[in-house]
Amino acid sequence: MRQTSAQRSTEQYGGPDARELGWDESLYEHGGDGGDPGELPDTGPPAGAASADGGNGSRHGGRRGRGSGRARRVLKWTAIVLAVAILATAGAGYLYYRHLNGNLEKDELNLGENRLDKSAPNADGNTPLNILLLGSDSRNSEENVELGGARDNAGRKPLADVQMLLHVSADRSNMSVVSVPRDTRVTIPKCTDPEDGTVYPETSATINSSLQHGGPGCTVATWEELTGVPIDHFMMIDFAGVVDMADAVGGVPVCVRANVQDPKSGLRLEKGETTVKGEQALQWLRTRHGFENGSDIGRAKAQHMYMNSMVRQLKAGTKLTNPGKLRNLAEAATKALTVDPGLGTVGKLYDLGNDLKRVPTARITMTTMPWTEDPQNPLAHLVPKPGDADKVFSLIRNDIALDGKDKKKAPEEDAESSDPAAPRGEIPVTVQNGTGTVAQAPVTGRAAEVTAELGRLGFARAAADATPKSQADTTVSYPSDDLRGDAEAVAKALGLPRSAVRVTQGVEEVTLVVGADWRTGAKYPEKPENGEEDNKAPESADPLNGDDKSACMDVNPEYTF
Description:
Layout: H1 5-13, H2 18-21, H3 77-86, H4 94-103, E1 105-106, E2 129-136, H5 142-148, E3 160-168, E4 175-179, E5 185-188, E6 191-192, E7 199-200, E8 203-206, H6 216-227, E9 233-237, H7 239-249, E10 252-256, E11 260-262, E12 267-269, E13 272-276, H8 278-286, H9 296-316, H10 323-336, E14 338-339, H11 346-357, E15 364-368, E16 371-373, E17 382-384, H12 388-397, E18 429-433, H13 446-456, E19 462-465, E20 475-478, H14 484-494, E21 501-503, E22 510-514, E23 544-545
């Protein structure tokens, strides 16, 4: 009788393989139910909401189980888009395009109340592109249960353990990818489920649980709150899609500096370069104990290397010259994806792929959000590292490459507003203190300090508001076009960039939120300029260049053969 790969792996290595264990072996390190041992205390669902642990498993994708923690999980998100773009060379006809369009699942982009304006265009009229890439632990199909393990979680509301922001510069010269560990505690804003109208109040919880608050649109809202970066699109994939894509691509070269055998993940490779695909690719992406010191940091590095290698191959087209393989890849990619309506057709994915193909691999930088242990639960959770995480997000907000290789550009002149401002003394301004984060307490009296500065500048009707806020970047919001000029006058007086001014339905007058990026001083800190030596990702972000073909994983000496 023919053996399955799972049976062969069990007999050879003395333990189950990736398909038996599921995506993350740590699901099973603290018990067999796949639950998250480090979750925040459950305060219960909102009125009328289904239990997060006992929901009926809607369309929303996500993942359950303690994730790999630190730079999780740069899989093949860019590769998926590139693969769909390459489909054009296969001569697919109109009916086939309609078929592929039908494969795509779609969901709302943003479920929050305070949505950010799109990024401002550069001097040439081009805008940056920000895409949130999500990996789901959905166990709402037999194939996902087989791959994800934890059968008891089938039908439960999924989590989004894989989360990363893909930022493409306005001139398409560079790309920055920032992943956030799934156990990072953040503020999840108020979200409303578009399917049943359930309202989920604002809460502090691990970022992966944001998917349970109505779907991927709440994860998008959470990222905008965390980073101050406006998200243009999202793309989400589940377990089955990961394996299908690995098979369809035909394998990805990876490298280890010594023989490695990890019984937890089932990975067994000899020293040097090996092309992995299918379940073996999944084993590579899951391996933690066998790499470096056995921490999640090593696993994250292996995943960054995998994605870079796959992108290089897809851009070179070395394994995608056969029309049949192209069609298989297109089928796998479109069936694996849930996207927002703005990416809801193959044509739109094709356009996106063409944009991404313009970026040379030498200007792709993979990073992880700098993190530190959560003071409230240091053994289980993380929080953004003050200073370093703020710097990464600021560079992205200002469209500055994380590799530090941007050429310095001449400062752009602000255009005159079409709406004239009222005299300063007649402009009502509400000032709120948003300097508090999950990692730092708010600066006491900060709203009053900035209100006093506005008064000194002639804004006699400025008033501090004690409503607690938490916001990454400082903003000046206004409710309607007739107050835009007033908002811009406030921003200009304080030295804020024009990009800080935005229209928001949630305010009644000009409202200044002093964010975590402005904790001290009367004037807003100067905007970083392209080309400055220190304007690159800090070392704590563990940057990896997309063109680094020499990358090779160190092996934990306890897991060699």
